[in-house]
Structures are given as structure tokens and as C-alpha cells.
Amino acid sequence: MSTTYPTPIQILDSERTQETISGIRAVAISPSGLLYIAMPSVSGRMPAIGVAVNNALSGQFLIYSQLGSIQATSGLLNFSGYVGKTIWIARSGQLAQMSGSWLSGGYTSRDVWQRAGIALNSGGLRIHLELASTINNRMTIIALASGVAGGELPI
């Protein structure tokens, strides 16, 4: 997998993985402090803290982007018809538009919804993770820096 960075502004970090992560996937921090694939429908696998920009086996270091742009190789991302629209974290950490995507698999009311960024072109994404998520139609504000998730607001 090759990834290019079309804009000079990037916030990158790296951490060891708890599982194999390949392709451009949203990642979260596991209870043991390692990276794993973010999953909206699995308890404890959200919120995402970044998007993987390389591949890593379990126990290896993975580089992930928290802010910036990613241009994926052909077929890795497909946002055709959704340029300029919000991209969400979907099942198994994929990045997808809300409707019409086979990746989304249909969201349920129990899923944690999190915005990942904006589609730049059919295979490009401007990453800007929303630091709030929606669970059961209630908004939860996430304070990643302090490690504490706070308050719920009805939406």
C-alpha cells in the first residue's frame, strides 16, 4: 500500500498494535493501551483516535494520522459521488459515506457514530476526527487529551 500526503499539514503519531491492521482503517486505543481497529458496533472499540496510514502486524508500530489528508491507492477508498461530503467510520474501521455504501453495512441505534473527515476526491480524504460521538441519540463529548469522556446531550 502506498499513501501520499497532498497537504503539508499532518498530525501523525505511532503506537504498537494489538492486532494486524492493514489498509486505511480507523484505529482506537484498547484497554491495554495498544492500537486496534475502531468498530462502531463493538463496545470499547470507539472512539477512533486516528486513521492508519501504513500496515502493521500485531505488536508492530503503526503510524496513524489525526489530522491531514490521505490519498489512497486505486480502489482502497471509493468516495465517488460524495466529494465534499462527510465521511464516517464504518464497520471494521473502514471509512465510508453514510448511505449507499456497502461498507457502512447499515448503522444501528446502538452504534457509536463518529465523523472521520471530508471526501476530497474518489480516493482521497481530509482527516478531521470529530471528538464527539452519538450513542442512542445522545451526544457524548470526548476529551481524548485528558483521557476522560464527559457529558451527554440529547440530539
Description:
This protein has about 160 residues and is mainly beta. The chain has one domain (about 10-155). It is about 0% helix and about 40% strand. The chain has no helices and twelve strands. It has strands at about 10-15, 25-30, 35, 50, 60-70, 85-90, 95, 115-120, 125-130, 130-135, 140-145, 150-155. Strand 2 (about 25-30) and strand 3 (about 35) form a beta hairpin. The protein is globular.
Q: What does the secondary structure layout of this molecule look like, with pairings?
A:
Layout: E1 11-16, E2 26-29, E3 35-37, E4 50-52, E5 61-71, E6 86-89, E7 95-96, E8 115-121, E9 124-128, E10 132-135, E11 138-143, E12 148-154
Antiparallel strand pairs: 1-5, 2-3, 2-4, 4-5, 5-9, 6-7, 6-8, 8-9, 10-11, 11-12
Concise account of the structure shown:
The chain is mainly beta and 155 residues long. It contains no helices and 12 strands. The C terminus is likely disordered.
Which keywords apply here?
mainly beta, nine-stranded antiparallel sheet, three-stranded antiparallel sheet, 0% helix
Helix content: under 10%
Low-confidence stretches: 139-155
Structural class: mainly beta
Radius of gyration: 15 Å
What string, H for helix and E for strand, traces the elements in order?
EEEEEEEEEEEE
Residue-averaged pLDDT: 77
Provide the domain count: 1
Tell me, what's the shape? globular
The total count of helices amounts to: 0
Strand content: 35-45%
Largest beta sheet, briefly? 9 strands, antiparallel
The strand count comes to: 12
Termini separation (Å)? 39 Å
